[in-house]
Amino acid sequence: MPLAELSTKELLSIITHVKQWVGNLYRANQQRKQESKKALRAVISAVRETTVYLRSLKDGREISIEKEERLSLKWTQLAFELEDLGLNKLASRCSIKGRYWANPSDFDRDFLDRAGMRLADIERLAQNSLKQLEK
Fold first, then answer.
1. How many angstroms separate the Cα of 15 from the Cα of each of 7, 8, 18?
2. pTM
3. Which of 25, 43, 49, 93 is deepest in the core (most CB within 10 A)?
């Protein structure tokens, strides 16, 4: 049907529908942005928690299977959230961290260094991603 054959009522209906669709799209984008910020901030928190645990080990405290289990689950959950948001590079690193804390003896130091598994690398990636969201 050519545009000229649409009634005013039909044309207004189409315009209203398009406005609602654009509004919903904007809200969805804003929601995704907030979810991304929340997940990235959680990564930074996990880095800090892991850093504190590693510091306690360096200070002579004993290994805590309970803390390592908590870290494993935290990093794994973050990997799932980031993957759902399409932040795949960071999700992959978090997934490896989760597997590492589940059983550190499965990984050698060279692998972790090559995979960018240092906590500072992960935090830097999360911080850079947050900055990109602010633009």
1. 12, 10, 5
2. 0.78
3. 43
Report the alpha-carbon distance of residue 50 to residue 87 in Å, rounded: 21
User: CA-CA distances (angstroms) from residue 6 to 11, 21, 90?
Assistant: 6, 20, 50
Rounded Cα distance, 9 and 109, in Å: 69
Work out the burial of residue 76: count CB atoms within 10 Å of its CB; fewer than 13 is exposed, 13-18 middle, 19 or more buried: middle
What is the C-alpha to C-alpha distance for residues 97 and 51, in angstroms, rounded to an integer?
13
- Mean pLDDT, the chain, integer: 87
Q: Decide if pLDDT at 47 tops 50.
A: yes
CA pair distance 97, 95, nearest whole angstrom: 5
- Cα distance between residue 130 and residue 135, in whole Å: 9
Best CA proximity match to 78, nearest among 114, 51, 40, 116? 40
Q: What is the DSSP letter of 63?
A: P
